[in-house]
Amino acid sequence: MIYTITLNPSIDYIFKVEHFEEGALNHIFDEEALPGGKGLNVSRIMKALGTTATNLGFLGGFTGDFIEQKLAEHQIPHDFVKIEHPTRINLKMKANTETELNGLGPTINSQEVAQFMQKIAQIKMGDVVILSGSIPKSLSDDFYNELVTMIKNQGASFVVDTSGEKLWPLLSKEPLLVKPNQHELGLLFNTKIESIEEIVDHGKALLDKGAQHVIVSLGGEGSIYIGKTGVYRAQAINGSLVNSVGAGDSMVAGFVETLLKTNDPLEAYKIAVACGTATAFTQDLATMEQINEQLPNVSISQL
Ligand SMILES: Nc1ncnc2c1ncn2[C@@H]1O[C@H](COP(=O)(O)OP(=O)(O)OP(=O)(O)O)[C@@H](O)[C@H]1O
Ligand SMILES: O=P(O)(O)OC[C@@]1(O)O[C@H](CO)[C@@H](O)[C@@H]1O
To answer: How far is the CA of 287 from the centre of ligand 1 (A)?
Structure first.
């Protein structure tokens, strides 16, 4: 089975403002509330590609109810722990540029954590678990490490998409994929990474530490794949950016879904690029039709 874990899901409130003026009353001219959180996004794109992944994590309050309702509409299975405190709302403002304000997330009590751990204990040999996004403030920074230790001991493999220091102890446990963006890669090494050479060198360091595949996404500059068979660059595909929220998650979904089916990292990278691009060019996450439309435009070259 494939699982996605979103410890800190969200409603993504996406809104558009003509010219944002700080400190003034700004009127929104277009708005939409979408189910969000990195793991949720991964499972929605996997569904579009024809693979079912079960969502695990925590949901609470009216915001949690909204997400549950959306997952039902998308026919995505889930086994979230119901918590007392409401799931967060993340603000995504589209003005001249994209600005995001993400909440801290709810408080989760020890009973709720214990219920979640029981679900993790059911993960079996051969399962694949994708852990994505931030950790709510009431859980320890080491929570991913704890989960991955259990998941590995139970014989499952894992993918992790989170930023900062938390990634270091997970690398030696051989994640199938890590996908930092350029900024997150810099945070990880506590440095500013600018050139392609620097990206490749730092990406290779992640590989040396244990990651099986690395994708560094560069937003409107495309991405770089670093694997045991070589380093490849996908240029960004020309088109109009509509909403890049979830583009990185779409890449993760496309890569993992295809790798598990084909065991071909380059084919997986190609689908990942089509998924990321298709999501960047639409308001919500991409549909299968939109992903297929981008496939012929994907161009990958070896570096
Ligand atoms: N403006 C753009 N034009 C073309 N492609 C884009 C654009 N923005 C994103 N993409 C595609 O989506 C991929 C992932 O984007 P990005 O690097 O922004 O991910 P991210 O920062 O992880 O995003 P998120 O955390 O919101 O999911 C890029 O590598 C590229 O293929
Ligand atoms: O605060 P986190 O957990 O790091 O990121 C959460 C988030 O920004 O990631 C997704 C896009 O990748 C959005 O749906 C969601 O709002």
So the answer is: 16
Work out which ligand 1 atom sits closest to the CA atom of 184: 21
- The whole-model pTM stands at 0.96
161 a catalytic residue: no
223-267 pLDDT per residue, tens: 999 999 999 999 999 999 998 999 999 999 999 999 999 999 999
Q: Is 180 in the pocket of ligand 1 (CB under 6 A)?
A: no
Residue 64, judged by CB atoms within 10 A of its CB (0-12, 13-18, 19+), counts as buried
**pLDDT per residue as tens digits for the range 132-187:** 999 998 999 999 999 999 999 999 999 999 878 889 999 999 999 999 999 999 99
Higher pLDDT, 163 or 112: 112
Average pLDDT, the chain: 96
Cα(250) to ligand 2 centroid in Å equals 12
Q: Whole-angstrom Cα distance, residue 43 to residue 4?
A: 7
Domain 2-18+30-302 adopts which CATH fold? UDP-N-acetylmuramoyl-L-alanine:D-glutamate ligase (3.40.1190)
Q: Is residue 133 within 8 Å of residue 39, measured between CB atoms? A: yes
Task: Please report which ligand is nearest the Cα atom of 101.
Answer: 2
What are the boundaries of each domain within the chain? Answer: 2-18+30-302
> In sequence order, what DSSP letters do the residues of 62-100 get, joined into one string?
HHHHHHHHHHHHTT--B-PEEESSPPEEEEEEESSSEEE
